[in-house]
Every structure is written in structure tokens, then in C-alpha cells.
Amino acid sequence: MALDEVAEIAIDREPASVAAYMFDPAHDPEWIGGISEAQPIGPPPLTTGSRVRRRASFLGRRIDYVMEIVDLVPDRRMRMHAVEAPMPMDVTYEVQPSPHGCVARVRVEGDASGMYRIAAPLIGAQVRRSIAADVERLKHIVEAG
Questions:
Q1: 23 has which bridge partners?
Q2: Which residues contact 141 (CB under 8 A, 6 or more apart)?
Q3: Predicted structure pTM score
Q4: Which residue, 116, 129, 122, is CA-closest to 7?
Q5: Which CATH architecture fits 2-144?
Q6: Predicted confidence (pLDDT) per residue in 27-46, tens digit
């Protein structure tokens, strides 16, 4: 079963400032629920091929995983692919200009098959709730300045 969940929100800030915050792993624990640590593997700056190690909690379990940046368009989009994770997934952050700032979007795609098939409906619902709350936190943080 394919997992494909999207959350987006209008933010009253310039796209470049939202993207700078959103794409910086140092901020992940502040706006992404469940993330307690995020650290680039290797020197800055982040570019295509850079990797980020994350520690998270999901459905009551601690998860350590590594995401690799597979597409990076400064101030617009960052797409990451899990290279070390319990479930195959891609995460995309996008920032689109709008008349009153921008629209920030988070998309999580994954493969909830194999041993995850039984829990797929629960995983999808939890991811949907989580990323909706994440974009709300993002909005609050960046609008507060």
C-alpha cells in the first residue's frame, strides 16, 4: 500500500526566509513533531547528496534514520529519500510564493507494504495528523520571527 500524504499552509513571510528555516536540519526538532535530533552528516552547506541523521518517535517507538537530499532548489524545494530507515520513504518540503507571503508544503511518500501492510491505515492517518501539526508549528514559529 502506497503512502502519500500532503499538508500545506499559507505563511505571511517571504518564501526565502521560510525555506531557509524549513530546510535547515538544526530547526527540525523545533517544528517537526517527534523529531528530537537532526544532524547533517558531513560539512555544510547542504547540497544534493548531503545526508541528515534524525532521531524520532513514531507510534510510541524510537526511530533512527538517515535521509539523503536528492533534489534541492534553493528557496523552493528540498526532496529527501530515506537511505537508512525502517520504512522506505521520501519527504519533500516546498515553498511557493503567494500574494501574501508563501505556501509551505510537506509531502511524505512511502511504501507501507511488507510487514507494514497491517498497520498501513494507522500509519497513513498518523502521518497525515503529524504533518498537518508540523506545518501549523512552522507557520507559528516563522511568523513570530
A1: none
A2: 21, 30, 31
A3: 0.92
A4: 129
A5: 2-Layer Sandwich (3.30)
A6: 999 999 989 999 999 999 99
- AA letter at 68: E
- Tell me the average pLDDT of the chain: 92
Residue with cell 552547506: 45
H helix runs in the chain, sequence order: 15-22, 28-31, 120-144
CA distance 132 to 32: 10
Q: Give DSSP secondary structure letters for 11-52.
A: ESS-HHHHHHHHT-GGGHHHHSTTEEEEEEESSSSP-TT-EE
Give the number of other Cβ atoms within 10 Å of residue 138's Cβ.
23
C-alpha cell at 53: 541523521
Give SS3 for 35.
strand
Task: Kindly list the domain boundaries of the chain, sorted by start residue.
Answer: 2-144
Phi, psi of 32 (to 5 degrees): -100, 115
> And the C-alpha cell for 143?
511568523
Residue type, 120: A
Residues 70-112: tens digit of each pLDDT:
999 999 999 999 999 888 899 999 999 999 999 999 999 998 6
Q: Round to whole Å and give the CA distance between 43 and 107.
A: 26
